[in-house]
Write a structure and sequence with these properties.
Blueprint lengths: L2 E6 L6 H11 L3 E5 H8 L1 H6 L1 H21 L3 E5 L3 H8 L4 E8 L2 H11 L6 H11 L6 E5 L5 H11 L4
Parallel strand pairs: 1-3, 1-4, 2-3, 4-5
Helix pairs in contact: 1-8, 2-4, 6-7
Amino acid sequence: MAKIIVIHGPMGSGKSTIVSKLTNKLPNYILVDRAYIKDTMLERVKEKYPNLAKKLSADAMFLIARRLLKKGFNIILQEIRLPAVKKKLGNEHKIISFYLHCNVDEAKKRDAIRQSKHIRPKVIEEMHLKYAYSDKGDIDIDTKKNSITKTVNLILNAIGRV
């Protein structure tokens, strides 16, 4: 049975950093990153039609995930929520979902560090208001209280890999 790791949380919560470390520790997992699809592959679409880019990126992510799962690959899904994963991919796979979060001030600091051209404190606040909640079944990890290494180890322990 293929395994699915779901990583989600608000902007600035450390999702990309943690997923980058996880992919190094879990070479038998394939990353399917909705944000990459939306922000890189569909960048021009997103500029003019943001809702279309959001919908297409989810559709593409689930298409890729379904095909990989059929071939027996384990996957990491970034930027999607557990209810959507269960609805689109069913319950025949082992799904472990992690909600990464930190407070808004910490997210703003992190965003300021990673953004060389502009800082987006208002966007951070809006994203935290809209997306800063866990879903039933998520394992909740505060990335301000836990270091990157500790967060990765918490995830590895939860999926049974150390």
